[in-house]
Amino acid sequence: MTEAILLVGGKGTRLRPLTVNTPKPMVPAAGVPFLTHQLARARAAGVDHVVMATSYLAEVFEPYFGDGSQLGLHLEYVTEEEPLGTGGAIRNVASRLYSSPDEPVLVFNGDILSGLDIRALVDQHTRVGADVSLHLTRVTDPRAFGLVPTDTSGRVAAFLEKPQTPEEIVTDQINAGAYVFTRSVIDTIPAGRPVSVERETFPGLLEAGAHLHGMVDSTYWLDLGTPASFVRGSADLVLGRAPSPAVPGRCGERLILASAQVAGDAKLTGGSVAGAGAEVGAGARIDGSALLDGAVIAPGARIRDSLIGAGARIGADTVLDGAVVGDGAVIGEGNELRGGIRVWCDARIPAGAVRFSSDQ
Fold first, then answer.
1. Where does the Mannose-1-phosphate guanyltransferase C-terminal domain lie (predicted)?
2. Pick the CATH number of 2-223 from 2.40.40.20, 3.40.50.970, 1.20.1740.10, 3.90.550.10
3. d(Cα 65, Cα 345) in Å, to the nearest integer?
4. What is the structure's pLDDT at 11?
């Protein structure tokens, strides 16, 4: 078995208003908190002990997951009093690990949805005798990411910050946010101060001659840091494009939780989700969207590629396209909101007040 550290301390600023009341890893994707999918996949790969490094809204995690026994895991929680960065968070939970100095410890971020073969990454780490192994994925446009070139054996050759010119793009391989550390390496990370593994730990280890190894796995990978990508990730889980044993139902065009009420002539397609207690009125059309718990969609509404927060209400004949509606917000009938618009939690938009809005 392998134990793991799960980094779930980020504020999820880019996902607001979804993260005003809920930490990013706890926002529902395909009917359950996104973190549930990560924990279930880790357990399926043989992980039995997970330490969560929490910070923002830390009090939310333990009441939901408890000791992890329902997932077949032993969960522990460590809260940062001050944000410590990725490396600092890893070091901050080291005392809760059981592994001996030469054993592998899996580390993964709480906002990445991937089809990574976790067991293969751990096995490769052990086989090649690496100090740290990194999951790498290939992207069409790597300019927004840190590049990680490797030699023909897979050994990491450099860590390159976001390239600014075509000449700087020496590889399409990027850091995909999952790692395996040999346990003793974690103890070399400075304690008690912010540390970035991407900017400090990994380059420092490489400079010191440590063996850092990359495994390219490009089956499925998505950073859920923006509302558009989060909605897409939820839909991909429902459609079965992204793997997870935690989807609470069969994969297909829609996922309707047992307590949701959907009118007979309403249509949910494209991996849409109707959460617990959600209501969808007659003639409504929901495509590629997520309705969180208690959301109410009035008759005739048309919603595409959008996320509707818990308890929010969407009026009759309103059109939403690429919108995010915060918890408890009310959108009156006959509105049209498009192009990435975000409606804050508990906001009120009167009937017919908005006919079109672009990026804000």
1. 252-334
2. 3.90.550.10
3. 25
4. 75
